[in-house]
Design goal:
heterodimer, A: 476 residues, alpha+beta, 15 helices, 20% strand, elongated, B: 97 residues, mainly alpha, two-stranded antiparallel ribbon
Chain lengths: 476, 97
């Protein structure tokens, strides 16, 4: 019988923090500036320049550390990690090796019906490197230091994951927590969240870890899932052939769906870490931690618990809505205004999700106000507009955040509540469609539908279909 | 007594520092490094039992900057000494792809 293998995975996740300035200088972190415009002597490693730590970065790091159940270090400091590469103008990256800001945390993940804890070994603060662009024209590289010094935290997990599903659940969990904190937008595609995958395989049932490899360049959940599958297969094939897995860093090429060794023997890995002499230690008091803890927003897991008690909406809907803090905020505010959480939830779950998908947008990009959604719910509840008009109005709210009351008024979309006018129309419809009337009397229910349709058309969609149906039956 | 630094160590340090050293330069580097290690041996004679590792000699901590962005465009100064530049960027030999 073929041997069974278990995959063992640990993650190193880099998260770009939402600070306005770099970690050690006041250059802007804004995305998309012309090359090297957001640079200064500090972030380009000019001799004699001195880094000064951004307080906001420490506060974001503490907030994330607390939210992922870490112990926050009372004393932490920075170290230099030495390496030579053109993206790194100082020839060292300022990072934290010996005394990182947070240690020993965990997050709880869910895959299918199973819950498990993924432990976090440590989290540290560090600076990002510059960007290299390959110039096809003359086969050179162009270096832009706008990213150099952008603040990051690196979250290092224990090797607690066993499948691509668990890895994705872990990343999604981290992402939601950090987005809720407002500490980063965590976009894999745009590089504000990056994951390196450490993977080894071992025979099922054995305790000892196999030799691991590290995979870089994974910029979507799909790429991560494919890379994990590919690397697992590659390692099992080596072991089955009696060969050894070599500990190395590999680069995933998602187009070719294969990974390649990134470094040759010549590029010996020895970072010669030593304490950063230009930065003084950071001492974190209990008071500071408590201040930050008191400012922490309600996180998703807490919201889910509260929704279960406060709102009569399905657990599935609650999960989707709380998937984005922005959407959860809209839900809570709109529900508070109109008092109809279930209706609000329906608009978010059905029409909002559909429109987001159609426009290729993220929930964070929703731009309508909870007030306007609440007004729309009230308009339909008071039977001022029918459901097809409501859908039409909602599309306007979604696109332009229109005030539905004004919009309905201006476009004359209010439902016709004048029964006299309706009866007039019905009389005419009955007179004009003797065949349908006859069919209806002959027992064909479908014929009634045709008459309702004719009536709605004559009323320009502004009638209540239920009422039309009822009146029509009476008059026939 | 002088520490012996092996040929392999000299080669390895050369690779890490991205230096190609001549035989003469290697011998000089070996002599310098052995001198440094001798000095460390002197330090190692001290009794440091119970002393906390120290990264700064001054009792200063928590020097912070507020998160306020400067609006200056630093590119002109940054690129002033670039040996070769193009499109507001440093141009270097191909390093990726």
């Amino acid at each position: 019988m073929a041997k069974q293998y278990e995959t063992v995975i640990g993650l190193e996740v880099h998260v770009e923090l939402a600070a306005k300035t770099k970690i050690f200088c006041s250059c802007s972190t804004e995305f998309g500036g012309a090359p090297n415009t957001h640079t200064c002597p500090v972030c380009t490693g000019m001799p004699g320049s001195l880094p000064v730590l951004n307080k906001k970065v420490v506060e974001y790091a503490i907030a994330i550390g607390l939210a992922v159940n870490c112990d926050i270090a009372r004393v932490c400091k920075f170290d230099r990690k030495n390496y030579f590469y053109p993206d790194n103008p100082q020839n060292y990256q300022i990072s934290q090796l010996y005394l990182p800001i947070a240690r020993n945390g965990y997050v709880e993940i869910e895959t299918g019906d199973t819950k498990k804890k993924v432990r976090i070994h440590e989290m540290h603060m560090e600076e990002d490197a510059g960007k290299l662009i390959h110039d096809e024209w003359d086969d050179t590289s162009l270096v832009d230091y706008n990213r150099s010094g952008v603040p990051l935290v690196e979250i290092v997990s224990e090797p607690d994951m066993r499948s691509a599903d668990e890895v994705i659940a872990y990343l999604e969990k981290l992402c939601t927590i950090i987005q809720y904190l407002g500490a980063s937008d965590c976009k894999l595609q745009e590089g504000s969240m990056r994951a390196d995958v450490n993977l080894s395989v071992r025979e099922a049932g054995t305790e000892r870890f196999g030799t691991r490899t590290e995979m870089k360049n994974l910029n979507s959940f799909k790429a991560i899932a494919r890379a994990i599958e590919g690397e697992r297969e590659r390692q099992i094939e080596l072991l089955e052939a009696g060969k050894a897995v070599i500990q190395e860093t590999r680069r995933w090429d998602d187009n070719k769906e294969a990974s390649y060794n990134m470094r040759s023997k010549e590029d010996a890995q020895d970072y010669r870490y030593f304490p950063e002499p230009d930065l003084v230690p950071v001492v974190i008091s209990d008071e500071w931690i408590e201040q930050i803890r008191a400012r922490q927003p309600e996180l998703r897991s807490e919201k889910l618990e509260r929704y279960k008690k406060e709102f009569d909406i399905p657990q599935y809907d609650a999960k989707i809505i709380t998937g984005s803090r922005h959407m959860a905020d809209i839900f809570e505010k709109a529900s508070a205004i109109c008092g109809k959480p279930k209706k609000v939830s329906n608009w978010l779950m059905v029409e909002t999700m559909r429109l987001l998908k159609d426009h290729g947008m993220e929930p964070e990009e929703i731009s309508f106000s909870p007030e306007n959604l609440a007004k729309l719910v009230n308009l339909t509840e008071r039977r001022m507009i029918n459901s097809s008009v409501a859908k039409e109005v909602f599309e306007k709210i979604f696109a332009e955040n229109v005030d539905p009351e004004n919009y309905v008024e201006e476009h004359g979309l209010k439902m016709e509540s004048d029964t006299g006018a309706l009866e007039e129309v019905l009389k005419k419809v009955i007179a004009d469609n003797p065949k349908a009337v006859e069919d209806y009397h002959g027992g064909k229910e479908k014929a009634l539908g045709a008459l309702v349709g004719q009536t709605m058309k004559a009323m320009k969609g502004k009638a209540d279909p239920g009422m039309v149906n009822q009146k029509l039956r009476e008059m026939l | 007594m002088a520490n012996k630094i092996s040929d392999e160590t000299i080669e390895y340090v050369g690779i890490l520092a991205k230096l190609e050293l001549s035989q003469k330069e290697k011998e000089n580097a070996r002599a310098d490094m052995e001198k440094m290690l001798d000095y460390i041996d002197i330090l190692n004679e001290l009794d440091t039992e119970g002393a906390e590792p120290l990264s700064h000699v001054f009792p200063v901590y928590n020097v912070f900057r507020e998160d306020v962005a400067s609006q200056e465009d630093g590119s002109e100064d940054t690129l002033a000494n670039a040996p070769v530049k193009k499109d507001n960027s440093f141009k270097v030999p191909r390093t990726i792809g």
